[in-house]
């Protein structure tokens, strides 16, 4: 079954490594590389390939007081020709008392893919099934809230993965099985430490903590291995074959503390040039390797080179020593050339020109050696300057900013990678389509890279045939004399024509005859043909991810593969699979089909009723808006009841008005919360009905002056005090000095960006702020904060692609649509804004998002009122009415499963909050959000003159993964829904339960 690799810095970018707190377990087993070595068979000289370094994968459990233990690791691997499959079983033990959630983060090497995983449920391992990525995330989080046993494996960017585990029981263990498939790629003997005609397979066995027991068993189909060693220790080999004709290697270690690499050398004869065939879902797939003589010729020396340098924060993790060594040798080789240096972070810097004569590039080298690595990575800005004839791109290919993709250059482009975590597929496709190549400096020497830069090579330019379709190749270049092709056979006998271009442009064709033998058993290399084809197709599609999202999703679901659009998930019971409409493993399928039949009827009824429910709630809100509420002093509270002779109280005739409310305890959750909310709503409705009726029409929002004063919130951390006391010209240098200690803190980058914006340095403020996109691959919470802060800085254009990504990551959350809709409105895209907000109103949502439809509907109607001529035909006519407000406050926050409360104290001293949702003068508070994000909304049609204080309070959380603080975003509006609308926004933080902050005040004056 599969194998599991990790190279130095391979998953974590430099800044994210600081996230690993006490609960981190380092897993070196999750790191497999394999190197195949052959004697040179082409005119091009061979160069030594250095052994790439490895870094353990990590189990991140930030809330663990005691480190999570790795009790048992069992590795079972099978090597059959070029195919390797490894099964890794990991047993974790949580010595802490509390239940925790963990995240296993790891990379795979190029050419490797996840074949599956399993999680123990009630003592038995249950295999994972594929699911759309966003849906898998939603289902995992929903199931987590019910305290059952889900596990979710996701692909991020490049070949990086994260496995979310919940629960890790207190003083309990969990088992996880990972399966990884690989086709060995060609390398050389120097890397393997064997003869020039040997195949080398390596499995790092390094851990950051002791392993209670390590068991390793490797079987070899065909020829027995030549030798095996663990680190420098030679291992005894069992060369005798078993009943299936396989040689084997087994060993066990107790309390293993080693950090060596298992190295196995195989004879090259174990890798024949063969055609692998497999039947899968009614299709016949093949994978073939063809021997092909490779020709090469010197490339003409360029006169003007584009040097595109990724200086984003993640660029610091690249091996700059290797990069500079390549440039040094290359410039010495070509002698004289002009270089156009384009530095790219969140944006592209102005081009700098350097003239190189006699190979002397000292000025350019000094510029690169002193480069500041900071900010996000905008791949779309990495385009060669005009007038250049060759491009050198130094990047990991992991973009996270802007919406433009890395496109094919009009000149030959060489993509040079020196980072262990990279999107090799994207870089290879873009480079090869331009006529250049992808150079991985972790798997080749500087001399080899320079030779590739100065050489034109034989390459594949077209494939066609009869009896075959959907042909894919790993690379257009011959690798160690072989061309690797996969496709689908439509006839038992087929013919494939390869069009090959030699250096100088001469083309020739080669015809290959394919005969579909009966597919071999699943134990051989031939069983991997379908997955190999799917892997190659996936690499092509993901090179243009935005355009191919749907095709990527279909491929992942069809083949059970991880991709940027699909994940693998394990759920607790068959009812969960039915509830979330996920096809379960075979053992649960019959029961699942029965449950799905009844569920479809229930869902149809619920969808039909949703709009009617929203319309009824909106009718209630209109009744509130149409009422006139008193604006004078509230009556005094009633005197205590006098006692009658029999002890019975004497009641007053009139019910007292609401009195000022003391600081409350938060609303209970679950059924109790629902009951309390229903009772409160009934009381509010009764109060509304007893109010005197007011005239319908427009609000009195413009009848008196209203202003907003924000209370400036300042962080008190030492770095913030140092920055506030510094001169403006020293701010960025101080930030760089403080950054290493706060590299994993979103708060740090937010605070520094705020100060830079305040001091009139928006370009640097934007750069610092964009680091949030670098901190954690595809973390929607961090991205949401980034977008809010960009909007606060009036940088709407950069915020839009960030919010679009948030929506792609979490389409199951109404906040994703609302945030994007409001940003589109701020950008003047009113129709698109209305369409997004209508999604919030019209779709049924989880009941942890109470009242979000009415909040979005108010914003939708306000846009329609301000922008006549909008297309509202999709919108139910019962919901189209603008309800302008004199005062409005909306609170949102970034943490899931977290309860933040919006409070507003009016001139009467009365507190409006979830426990007092309708005040004496008509202030209306939306339902309480106890489960994360908000929004919570305060609305007041006509405001009594005076001062209104807006506060936010942190009540608590129900998370197993807890951030040090929660970021809050508040929008205060006057004249909401009118042409005179004015908004003020603020971003601030609360750090723990009971923490509260005064955000600002509304000051309302009497009508002139």
UniProtKB/TrEMBL annotation:
Biased segments, Low complexity type: 641-654, 666-679
Where does this protein have compositionally biased stretches of type Pro residues? 655-665
**Gene3D superfamilies with a match to the protein in the record:** 2.60.120.380, Tetratricopeptide repeat domain
Where in this protein does the record put region Disordered? 624-710
Please give the InterPro entries that the UniProt record associates with this protein: DUF2135, TPR-like_helical_dom_sf, VIT, vWFA_dom_sf
Domain VIT positions: 54-182
Name of the protein described by the UniProt record = DUF2135 domain-containing protein
């Amino acid at each position: 079954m599969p194998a599991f690799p990790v190279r130095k810095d391979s998953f974590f970018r430099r800044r994210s490594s600081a996230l690993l707190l006490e609960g981190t377990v380092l897993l070196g087993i999750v790191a497999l590389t394999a190197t195949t070595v052959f004697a040179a068979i082409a005119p091009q000289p061979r160069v030594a390939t250095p052994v790439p370094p490895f870094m353990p994968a990590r189990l991140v459990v930030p809330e663990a007081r005691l480190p999570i233990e790795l009790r048992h690791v069992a590795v079972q691997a099978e090597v059959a020709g070029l195919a390797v499959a490894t099964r890794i079983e990991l047993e974790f033990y949580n010595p802490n008392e509390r239940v925790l959630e963990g995240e296993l983060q790891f990379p795979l090497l190029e050419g490797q893919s996840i074949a599956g995983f399993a999680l123990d449920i009630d003592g038995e391992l249950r295999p994972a099934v594929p699911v759309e990525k966003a849906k898998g995330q939603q289902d995992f989080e929903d199931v987590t809230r019910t305290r059952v046993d889900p596990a979710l494996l996701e692909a991020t960017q490049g070949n990086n993965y994260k496995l979310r585990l919940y629960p890790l029981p207190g003083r309990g263990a969990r088992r996880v099985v990972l399966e990884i498939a690989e086709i060995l790629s060609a390398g050389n003997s120097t890397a393997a430490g064997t003869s020039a005609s040997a195949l080398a397979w390596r499995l790092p066995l390094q851990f950051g903590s002791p392993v209670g027991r390590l068991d390793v068993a490797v079987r070899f189909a065909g020829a027995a291995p030549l030798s095996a060693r663990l680190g420098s220790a030679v291992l005894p080999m069992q060369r005798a074959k078993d009943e299936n004709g396989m040689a084997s290697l087994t060993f066990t270690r107790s309390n293993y503390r080693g950090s060596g690499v298992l190295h196995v050398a195989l004879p090259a004869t174990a890798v024949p040039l063969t055609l692998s065939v497999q039947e899968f879902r009614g299709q016949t797939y093949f994978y073939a390797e063809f021997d092909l003589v490779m020709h090469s010729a010197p490339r003409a020396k360029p006169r003007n080179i584009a040097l595109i340098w990724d200086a984003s924060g993640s660029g610091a993790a690249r091996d700059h020593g290797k990069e500079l060594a390549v440039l040094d040798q290359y410039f010495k080789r070509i002698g004289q050339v002009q270089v156009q240096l384009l530095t790219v972070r969140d944006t592209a810097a102005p081009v700098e020109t350097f003239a190189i004569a006699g190979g002397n590039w000292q000025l350019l080298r000094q510029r690169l050696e002193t480069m500041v690595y900071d900010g996000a990575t905008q791949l779309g800005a990495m385009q060669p300057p005009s007038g250049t004839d060759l491009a050198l791109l130094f990047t990991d290919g992991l973009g996270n900013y802007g919406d433009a993709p890395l496109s094919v250059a009009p000149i030959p482009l060489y993509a040079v990678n020196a980072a262990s975590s990279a999107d090799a597929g994207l870089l290879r496709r873009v480079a090869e389509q331009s006529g250049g190549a992808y150079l991985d400096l972790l798997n080749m020497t500087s001399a080899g890279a320079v030779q590739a830069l100065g050489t034109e090579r034989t390459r594949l330019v077209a494939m066609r045939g009869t009896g075959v379709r959907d042909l894919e190749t790993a690379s257009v270049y011959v690798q160690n004399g072989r061309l690797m092709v996969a496709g689908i056979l439509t006839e038992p006998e087929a013919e494939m024509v390869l069009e090959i271009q030699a250096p100088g442009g001469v083309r020739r064709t080669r015809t290959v005859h394919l005969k579909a033998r009966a597919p071999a058993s699943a134990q051989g290399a031939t069983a991997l043909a379908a997955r190999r084809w799917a892997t190659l197709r996936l690499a092509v599609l993901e090179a243009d991810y935005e355009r191919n999202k749907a095709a990527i999703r279909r491929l992942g679901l069809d083949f059970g593969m991880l991709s940027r659009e699909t994940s693998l998930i394990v759920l607790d019971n068959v009812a969960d699979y039915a509830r979330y409409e996920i096809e379960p493993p075979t053992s649960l399928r019959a029961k699942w089909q029965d449950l799905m039949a009844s569920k479809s009827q229930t869902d149809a009824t619920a969808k039909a009723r949703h709009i009617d429910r929203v319309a009824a709630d909106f009718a209630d809100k209109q009744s509130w808006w149409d009422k006139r509420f008193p604006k004078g002093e509230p009556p005094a509270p009633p005197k205590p009841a006098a006692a009658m002779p029999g002890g019975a109280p004497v009641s007053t005739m009139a019910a007292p008005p609401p009195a000022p409310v003391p600081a409350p305890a938060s609303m209970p959750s679950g059924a109790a919360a629902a009951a309390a909310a229903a009772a409160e709503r009934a009381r509010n409705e009764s109060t509304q009905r007893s109010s005197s009726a007011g005239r319908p029409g427009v609000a009195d929002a413009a009848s008196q002056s209203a202003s907003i004063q924000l209370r400036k919130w300042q962080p008190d951390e030492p770095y913030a005090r140092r920055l506030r006391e510094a001169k403006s010209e020293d701010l960025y240098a101080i930030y760089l000095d403080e950054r290493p200690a706060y590299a994993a803190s979103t708060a740090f980058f937010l605070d520094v960006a705020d100060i830079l914006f305040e001091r009139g340095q928006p370009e640097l403020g934007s750069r610092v702020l964009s680091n949030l996109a670098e901190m954690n691959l595809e973390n929607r919470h961090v991205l949401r904060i980034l977008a809010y802060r960009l909007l606060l800085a009036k940088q709407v254009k950069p915020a839009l692609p960030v919010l679009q990504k948030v929506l792609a990551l979490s389409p199951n959350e109404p906040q994703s649509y609302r945030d994007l809709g409001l940003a589109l409105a701020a950008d003047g895209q009113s129709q698109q804004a209305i369409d997004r907000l209508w999604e919030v109103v019209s779709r049924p949502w989880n009941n942890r998002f109470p009242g979000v439809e009415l909040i979005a509907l108010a914003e939708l109607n306000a846009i329609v009122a301000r922008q006549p001529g909008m297309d509202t035909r999709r919108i139910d006519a019962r919901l189209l009415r603008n309800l302008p407000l004199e005062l409005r406050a909306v609170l949102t926050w970034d943490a899931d499963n977290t309860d933040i409360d919006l409070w507003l104290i009016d001139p009467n001293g009365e507190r409006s909050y979830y426990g007092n949702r309708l005040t004496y003068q008509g202030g209306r508070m939306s339902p309480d959000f106890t489960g994360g994000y908000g929004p919570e909304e305060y609305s007041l049609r006509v405001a009594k003159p005076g001062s209104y204080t807006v506060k936010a309070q942190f009540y608590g959380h129900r998370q197993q993964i807890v951030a040090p603080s929660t970021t809050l975003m508040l929008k205060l509006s006057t004249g909401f829904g009118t042409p005179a609308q004015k908004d003020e926004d603020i971003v601030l933080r609360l750090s723990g339960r009971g923490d509260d902050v005064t955000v600002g005040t509304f000051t309302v004056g009497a009508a002139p």
